[in-house]
Amino acid sequence: MEILLTFIVGFVTVLHFYFLYFEMFAWETTGRKVFKTFPKDLFKPTKSMAANQGLYNGFLAAGLLWTFLLVILNGNQILDCFFSCVAIAGIYGALSVSKKIFFIQALPAIIGIVLTLLGTL
Q1: Letter string b/e over residues 3-40, b meaning 16 or more CB atoms within 10 A of that residue's CB
Q2: What single-letter DSSP state applies at residue 9?
């Protein structure tokens, strides 16, 4: 169980650092590849909005990384808090932008929550 939890924490953390990268630094290149249905002429005017989203994704990744280091000292409550933030952001993104966001962002975080709960039983 611990190995699977370690993997999912690492996976969700890396995902959110990647989101930070493409939303803050590669919105007009990588962003176009990720959001294919978004009109191409809107990437430039929405660059600062995407960068703001990227910053928040970076905060989530930093929180997960921090709690990953604390898990050794039984920091699962903090870990669940940040997993919940990721899951809520993913559910909101799925409802407001694309259903794929649920599977890419929210579902891995939900799996992480379940694994931490199972690990504490």
Answers
A1: eebeebbeebbebbbbbbebbbebbeeebeebbeeeee
A2: H
Mean pLDDT score, 24-42: 93
CA angle (12 as vertex; 1, 84 as ends), nearest 5: 85
- Is the model's pLDDT at 121 over the cut of 60? no
Provide the residue ranges of all domains of the chain, joining segments of one domain with +.
2-119
Question: What per-residue confidence (pLDDT) applies to 67?
Answer: 79
One-character DSSP codes across 35-95: -TTS-GGGTTTTHHHHHHHHHHHHHHHHHHHHHHHHGGGT-HHHHHHHHHHHHHHHHHHHH
Q: Give me the phi and psi of 57, to 5 degrees please.
A: -65, -35
> Using CA of residue 18, residue 59, residue 54, residue 37, what is the dihedral sign?
positive
Tokens 């919940």: give the residue: 84
44-89 pLDDT per residue, tens:
999 988 998 998 899 899 888 887 777 666 667 788 888 998 999 8
CA 47 centroid distance within chain: 19
